[in-house]
Amino acid sequence: MALTLHAQDSTAALDAELATWVAGELAQGITQRGRASLVVSGGRTPLGLFHLLRDKPLDWSRVTITLADERWVDNTHADSNEKLVRENLLVGGAAAATFIPLKFDAADPVAGAARASEAMRAVPDAFDVVILGMGEDGHTASLFPDSPQLAAGLLDATGEACLATENATKAPRWRITLTAPRLAHARNIALHVTGAQKWQLLGEVLAGQDAFRFPIRFAFNQSEVSSHVFWCR
Fold first, then answer.
1. Which helix (H) or strand (E) holds 194?
2. Which pTM was predicted?
3. Could you tell me if residue 230 is inside a domain?
């Protein structure tokens, strides 16, 4: 496992470093392959990153952005990751990027995941950058330790990019997530976390291999993808 740690003394400095790094990887993808792709996560942690990244002088029309996961809610709902990204990242020049949502009109989450998987075929190659978060239980995207669909999300053999998952501890209960194999089909994976508690948890994550206990471990239990941790107190 090749792991690079990027540590800063403040969230502002961390967001600035991560935004510059992501923009550099996207620019390289555009130069080398004509297009670049980025997977982002929801929540409050990436908001500062989004506000800095959207102002980077990239050819955003050649960038495709999607989500690591999405809650099974309408895209106007306060809990929608799509809403978060549209309002905070797809602004100004970055509005020219192609956005692939994970929530589609469907009868149920399983059917919705099938539609999301179909949409993800627009990005057949490895993602240039995948940015993940980590919950206090070691979950990432919507791969939860207590989810009945965790094995399918970590080890899915169907080849489909997306999966409907449920959990007992977080609302909304149903989510659509990219599977671990699809997230790992990337050139770079970056874990973006802050705080001493997450630092301690990261130590536990890196000390073992069992991804069923801490699903985020899938990002580090491989040697094919460049893995990065961006952290500050």
1. strand 188-194
2. 0.97
3. no
